[in-house]
Every structure is written in structure tokens, then in C-alpha cells.
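User: Predict the structure for this protein chain, please.
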Amino acid sequence: MSNNKRCSKCDQIKLVTEFYSASRCHCKECERKEARWRMARPENVIGTALRDAHKTAVKFGVEDTLTLDELRYLFALSGGRCAYTGKFMTKPSVDHYVPLSRGGANAFWNVLIVDWSVNKQKHDTDPSDWLWQRQEVEREQDFIRLLATRRGVSIAEMAGYLAEFQAAYNDERIRRLLPEWVVKYKGKEAVS
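Assistant: Here is the predicted structure, written as C-alpha cells:
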């Protein structure tokens, strides 16, 4: 039995060990190139982003109503530009304005299409804080307007929702960081 085999993709003769199995007609290198090409196609990027968002929503137990059609629409609307920077994206990804880890919804109104590197920098930081750190506070009003439009509520209602969300998050953060202080403070407040 021969230890060599011809790859039908690159037409090179290679060792059988350079194939995933003797029955495969393409070598490992050609199969890997094909897989990278398939994964880079827009439909696969969007589908993968949706699956990842669904998994994360389940993990945090938050609202999960985002559909594939909505995500396709958002990718098309982005025009290949990052929602935060306005620059063309090298690798698009899904960002939740109100992070899922902080109780935000995996829903149409809460999703922005951003460059992967920007999403990684922001991580689960509060959007207001992150924009403030980048000295782009004026952009926050644009995002609130956008989210309100998508959610079908007024800008004031959306700003109120985000303020409530932030207050609840800050309260929880204080409880975790300073549990003894919270007990003492709450006790004094009740007496006053």
C-alpha cells in the first residue's frame, strides 16, 4: 500500500498522514483553507454571532428575542462601519449596548454591530463610562436616540430605562464591594 496520495484540490502528491483520513480527497492544508473561507462568509459570521449571543443570553438568564433576520438587517445597516468608531470593520461582531452580563437584553434594540477589536476593548464596561474614557460623551446621545427608535419608545423613556439600569448595577456593585458598609449605612438610614 502506498504512503502517498494526490490532493484533488491542490493537485500535489502528499503523504497520507497529511490527510485527515485516507478516504478524504483533499489534504489538511486545503481543507483548512476551505474552512477559513467558509467561516469568513458574511452569512456564517452573522449566524455564528447569533448563536454566540443566544448562548450568552441563556448563561445570564436575560431576554433573548433577537432573530437571524434582525441581525442580518443590522449588519446591512452598518454598511461595514463600526457603530462606535465609524471606521470600516476588519472583523465585525455583535455588541450589546447594555451588556448581557449586566442584565441587558439580547434584543434588536440593544444590539450594535462593531469591530471585534473595539468590542474586546469595551468588554462589559458600561457604555457611558466607556465613551467617557474615550472622550466621546456626545456620541452617547446618538446611541440613546438609536436605541429608543429601535425599541419604539421616546428618548426620555430610553434614557430613564438606562438610568434605572445603571442605578441598579451601581447598587449591586456597592453591595458586592462593601457589604459591611451597606448594612451599617442602611441601618443608620432606617433610624434617621
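The two ends are 91 Å apart (CA to CA).
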